[in-house]
Amino acid sequence: MDTPQEISLDQELVTGLAIPPRPRVLGDLFAEMSRDEPDLPRAAALIAADPALAGAMVKAVNSPAFGLSRKVGSVSQALSLLGLRNVANIAMSLAIRHAIKGEAGGSLERFWDTAERVALISARLARLFRGLPADEAYTIGLFHDCGIPLLMRRFPDYGRTLAEANATAGATFTDVEDRAFRTNHAAVGYFLARSWDLPAELCGAILRHHEPGLYSEAAGRSARRLQDLVGVVHLAEHVHHRAARDGFDLEWDKFEGPVLRHFGLHEEDLADIVEEFAFPAA
After folding, report:
1. Domain spans of the chain?
2. Does domain 106-282 have CATH number 3.30.1780.10?
3. What pLDDT was estimated at residue 3?
């Protein structure tokens, strides 16, 4: 696949995709997070200034996924219980979900519910692997497939290609998309992530998350962080797949060997992870 510096989308396709800009509140939150001593009341005020975001934030934090022992009634309480980084991640999840609006109806709701669960599992799994920050794992879990709803909105028949890609064993997922649309969701997701100022390694992992060849010896040690990010999201998707659907997982078939070897895991370890980290669908 092309490197991030070489890939491009033609102008007509870019215009049709209508890639949404990053909301200002996220930039302000990340700027606050980068300070040596972040100001939590200021962070709470930034979120509270957007009533829709604040309301969605409180609802999300009170969901069973976070397992809080008591309900929160405000963004300030959420910050005190979860910390700024976790709250910023939740804000990003809500922002990307609302920024990409289309006509796919309930199917997009299901898509974002799955993305959020995969992000949460990715963050939990990151604690098992040295050197992989939980917030980066959460972000790749959330954003890795974000090109899909944009392509669903742009191409009415994209759903058929998506089903074909999910069922094709002899080609990469993105090859099937490329044949149909001259682009793929990984490339589109890369451009969205770059426009939202995500770190370069996260953008690269989004671009390459359907490349089993990323784990070849030729990739070298320089690809270690990309391998970490891509590996954790495939492992998280497999955990979610086993918990929510318990069906055939073709992408895991392509990545299982490389990902397990990369993290030094065995089949018994995988079974333990699935049992420990899976949670039932809501």
Report:
1. 11-99, 106-282
2. no
3. 45
